[in-house]
Amino acid sequence: MNHPTHHTKLAFNTNLSAEGLFNAVEMWARARTTADSNRLHDLLRDKMHALIGEGEGGAAAGFFVFVKKSPEAVTPTDIVAYRDYLLEMGLAPTSIYARISRISSFFTWLLSEPTFKARIKYNPVDLARPKAPQAYGTERANALTDDQVRQLLLHVARLALGDNLSAKRDYALLRFYFATGKRRSEIIGLRGGDVQFKEDYLIIHTKEKGSLYRSSEVRDGGVRLALVNYLKASERWNGKTRAPLLANGEPIWLRHDRARQGKEGVTSHGFVFMLKRYAKEADIGEIHLHQTRHTVARIVGEQAGDLTEVQTVLGHQSLQTTRVYLDRVSIKRDKHSQRIAGRLGIDLPELNQP
């Protein structure tokens, strides 16, 4: 994989060289990442950036770039200083917690490896770990309104009417996310063998959290149409057999920039970058891809009125997880305030005059 740093900011006097630290971090990242994950490249990059990324372009620097110490010299005070730095950089509590957790994972791995454990006395994060943020307690958890969804889809659909292959791809992706409520990796990671085309609907096979595989129907005809239109535009649809021209392991969603010319799969980060641009152009403002999942949870919860229906759609193992999820994104309907006002006699016309 490409090195996320040139080691220029890791050149400090320690027992472990900059190159040695980089190699150790890469070994840890690979050891703690599922090798057959559809997001393997993204996960490795994120883990390595959290520890040794240079923080270019306004992004927060990795931990070892910030502290300029070798692992054996790191103290709990360094962890606290890094946490404060991330706060100043504007990272959300969940992002900060994730970064600190990766530092902890790295030290835990070092302590288990014969090559390194003689140098490392303890895990400094154990004495300085921040409190875990409340589940679904950030803006990422906010569901979009129906109007916002329509506005976003309409904007991307208009862009997809021309020859813009990326817009056709992104419109189809958005239709998938809003129709299924599936996680980021489950849709972006779809391959040729994962989608079955029926006469008027689709069946998709996804690898879900916990390495569970599930087959799901997608009955929304608009999803099928958007995907077919994208495959036709990217010359991967057989008009005679009305079937896709996709090998089993071939990515469905391709990069269509000049450098790649449709020969590599789009990354989730690449799609998220475009999604944020679309949202701003559609006057929706800041958006997170995970909000599509919360939006589906909200709509299913409002329409079905059944927690187990939401659990099934989201693929949660625990009903309690679904309950917390839905409580966070739902708007409680007011069934009583008007009756209370009437009973108490406080809704008097003369009191409401301007």
How would you portray this structure in words?
This protein is mostly helical. It folds into 2 domains: 8-133, Orthogonal Bundle (DNA polymerase, domain 1); 148-283, hpI Integrase, Chain A (Orthogonal Bundle), CATH 1.10.443.10. The protein is built from 15 helices and 5 strands. The strands form 2 sheets. It has a 3-stranded antiparallel beta sheet with strand order 1-2-3. It is globular, with a radius of gyration of 24 Å. The N and C termini lie far apart (68 Å). Residues 1-14 have low confidence and may be disordered.
Gist?
With 354 residues, this protein is mainly alpha-helical. It has helices at residues 18-31, 40-52, 63-67, 76-88, 93-112, 114-117, 146-160, 165-180, 184-188, 221-233, 268-281, 290-304, 307-314, 319-329, 337-344, and strands at 195-197, 202-208, 212-218, 237-238, 243-244.
Features:
DNA polymerase, domain 1; three-stranded antiparallel beta sheet; 6% strand; disordered N terminus; mainly alpha; two-stranded antiparallel ribbon; 15 helices; hpI Integrase, Chain A; 354 residues
Describe the largest sheet: 3 strands, antiparallel
The general outline is globular
The CATH superfamily name of the largest domain is Intergrase catalytic core
End-to-end C-alpha gap? 68 Å
Helices and strands in order:
Layout lengths: L17 H14 L8 H13 L10 H5 L8 H13 L4 H20 L1 H4 L28 H15 L4 H16 L3 H5 L6 E3 L4 E7 L3 E7 L2 H13 L3 E2 L4 E2 L23 H14 L8 H15 L2 H8 L4 H11 L7 H8 L10
Antiparallel strand pairs: 1-2, 2-3, 4-5
